[in-house]
Amino acid sequence: MALEHAILVSLLEKPGSGYELARRFERSIGYFWTATHQQIYRVLKRMEGDGWIDVREVPQQGRPDKKEYSVAALGRTVLSRWLHEPIEPESVRHDLAVKIRGAAFDDPVALIGEVERHQRAHADRLTHYLAGQLRDFTGPDAPTAQDAGQELQHAVLRGGIAYERMMLAWLDDVLATLHGLRPEH
Amino acid sequence: MALEHAILVSLLEKPGSGYELARRFERSIGYFWTATHQQIYRVLKRMEGDGWIDVREVPQQGRPDKKEYSVAALGRTVLSRWLHEPIEPESVRHDLAVKIRGAAFDDPVALIGEVERHQRAHADRLTHYLAGQLRDFTGPDAPTAQDAGQELQHAVLRGGIAYERMMLAWLDDVLATLHGLRPEH
DNA sequence: CTTGTCTATGCAACGAGTTGCATAGGAGGA
DNA sequence: TCCTCCTATGCAACTCGTTGCATAGACAAG
């Protein structure tokens, strides 16, 4: 499992509270690893108990105090060990693909709206990624000399962009197939 | 959750035993939905209890008897209802992306072997998909006039092919980035 | 003749992930 | 003033998914 490791990476990039992590998991990290705040708080507690991360109570004004977590020496060791051991290529789970194959036994045309909805969602994500790329990496305000961390973050973001573009093209293909089915129906 | 639905679709395409389903989930269905035999047997039992599927004991020679499952009327209804309700675009989980961002805090060069390993795995899958496409859809032995089911299965397979090609190109990109980091290290 | 693989089914325990709910102060709008 | 949203943390219950193990006959290779 990699939620612990995703949290370690995120805290190395920048220390933060469970709440802040939850928000990052809705944004940048969430592009390739999702988690809810309940899950994050639970895992943070365990990681703290295991000595992977340190806590610091940060009093705040006008809002509740927060616990800021940062990676401890042991956490770095654990992450390093994980980085050096091979992992299996991810197993995919695509509800939509199940639906598309299932549509053969129902009304395929009824699926068109759903596919278009997904296409819009992917188009939105793509727009969002491209804006992020312009802001952080390729735009005029982006830092010119980039360190390893930025180079790698950019590489991951390019992966997200490639994924969304692929999905948009494929969903176009699926729509064409669904429309092509119409006459014989 | 969609394991039930994936099983219903698979059983509609062709009735079969838990064992056969488990093998299909290593092959065609497994391209977009993974499940182990333990999971499948457990869910089949529940689905049978709920009246979604029917069982038929099939005695065999030279090998253990099997229970052949097929979709009951209620199962069809359940599937149809699911097909008509909207689902959220999948949440992705990419261990490798976590590793790539994590590599900035360790030795990025050490990741090259791992990325190449993943690339080989994706190349193998692509080869496998392309062989399947040739066999079932575009080759000389493929049926000429295809029904809706085949058209849709082919569309899903094209999605798998597009995905693997995208991954191969992206992993090339990642490798180039990792190599580009070398000098400054 | 033993070892290993294939078909075929399943239990038990555990770990991961989701859903619902709860608390609580401050800010802003109707 | 009340209602809602935002920050911030967390528990409890449940479902989903993984891992390890067990059984058992048939067949092939060494």
From TrEMBL, chains A, B:
SUPFAM superfamilies assigned to the protein according to its UniProt record, in alphabetical order: Winged helix' DNA-binding domain
Transcription listed as a keyword: no
One Pfam family it belongs to: Vir_act_alpha_C
Keyword terms: DNA-binding
Transcription regulator PadR C-terminal domain span: 92-178
GO molecular function, one term: DNA binding
InterPro entries cross-referenced by the UniProt entry: Tscrpt_reg_PadR_C, Tscrpt_reg_PadR_N, WH-like_DNA-bd_sf, WH_DNA-bd_sf
Domain Transcription regulator PadR N-terminal: 7-80
Domain of life per record: Bacteria
PANTHER family in alphabetical order: TRANSCRIPTIONAL REGULATOR YQJI (PTHR43252), TRANSCRIPTIONAL REGULATORY PROTEIN (PTHR43252:SF4)
UniProt name for this protein: PadR family transcriptional regulator
